[in-house]
Amino acid sequence: MKLKTLAAASTAWLAALALLTASGFALSATYMTREVTCLFNIVREVRSITQLEVHLLSHERESARVALTHLPEHVGARDAARRELSRWLEDAREQPVTAESASVFEEAERELERYLATHTQEHRKAGADTGASHDEVDRTFAALERLLATRLVEARIARQRVDEVHRLSEIVSLGAAGMLLAGVLLALWQLRRCVYRPLLSIRAAIDRYGAGSHDARAPQGGLDELREIAVAFNEMAAALAEQRKRQLGILASVAHDLRNPLAALKLTVDGLRPDRPLPHEERLRSMLTRIGKEAARCDRMLTDLMDIARIEGGELELRRETRDARELARDVVELYRPTATAHELGLSLPDEPVPLCCDPIRIEQVLNNLVANAIKYSPAGGAVQVTVARVGAEVSIAVSDRGVGIAADDQRRLFERYFRAPSSSGVAPGVGLGLWAALRIAEAHGGRIEVTSTAGRGSTFTLRLPS
Ligand code: ADP
User: Fold this and answer.
1) Residue 403 in contact with ligand 1 by CB distance below 6 A
2) Which of 186, 311, 347, 442 is close enough to 447 for a disulfide, judged by CB 3.0 to 4.6 Å?
3) How far apart are CA 225 and CA 403, in angstroms?
């Protein structure tokens, strides 16, 4: 899983939970508001009904007093009670009624209107109020009581609904809190499993590697990005281990290669010990020549190594001068002629000078490598031919042999560092750096090295340089 996917999934999951919770709360709040408004309306109507009952009784009482005493204060009180009755009836009419209570309300309203109308007619006819009949008052009162009872039942139902919604919203909020908590815990667990732990193990592997444990590798788990980091670290550690192995191999190979000229030097110098008589002049000269040659071989090997270090560090410096390419080729062939007795070293040069602007020491180093390889990888002897030619604006120096040759697949990798073709690596010692360094030198001159080879039949390496 990718880090982006994990983050997106966690965010979406938490956002969905939050949205669900918020919608639940909004819904229950709307429902509660509706029910509370309904309750409020019922309470107002209950108040109107009780006021109607109070003023109905008060009107009856004052009407009875007027009938008995005809006192003006009772007349005033009765009229006031009647006005109150009309006012509270109006108030009750303004309250919204439910479908269930509509008919009960209409009946109570009808009874009240009839009561008021009878009372007013009586009042006008007699000039004094004798009051409505007891039956009429009882009917009106009973209708009001029924209305009151209906509204109270409705109020109780509304209250029950509010309680239910309250309970439901409690459950919803507890459930939402639980789900949110579970979501957060799940996200934390995923973070720990897919991010934190793999990160810790990568860090531990880096620490172990830094402390010198070169076989330390990071476990490749967790998110894709962390797995890629672990894979990159492991590849880097493996490449470093491989490089280290090769460097140790180079050291061993250099030590081995240095041992031969040093052994020859030791043997020759042994012949010149002070306790022995000096050999004849001719023999002495030949011994000194050998010492010089072996010392030059050691020097060349060490120079090659230093060159490789310089090329690796990007410090290859060319000291250009114009030289005849024929001379360079001749010098190299002559250098190998005395030692390569099993091989037939041939040199093909044009008649005219071939001027070449180059660093002669470096170009000799390249040619040395090509000729040394041609000899090295022709174990049965045979011809090694060096050919100098001018091709257009280029100078070409080709070195051909009839040796072991190189398989087509391996030819592509010849100039890679440390590469050794399996077909020839058992034939002669080497570390696979000569051609790599030779190509770098050729490229620094603006040139290249081309190879043609047939396995088992021989190879031709051609150095091409701009003149
Ligand atoms: P080294 O000879 O030290 O191994 P080089 O870089 O000079 O390193 O050569 C790389 C590889 O190319 C050699 O190991 C060998 O396999 C192959 N090679 C180079 N020159 C020849 C040749 N003339 N004939 C056959 N194989 C060659």
Assistant:
1) yes
2) 442
3) 50
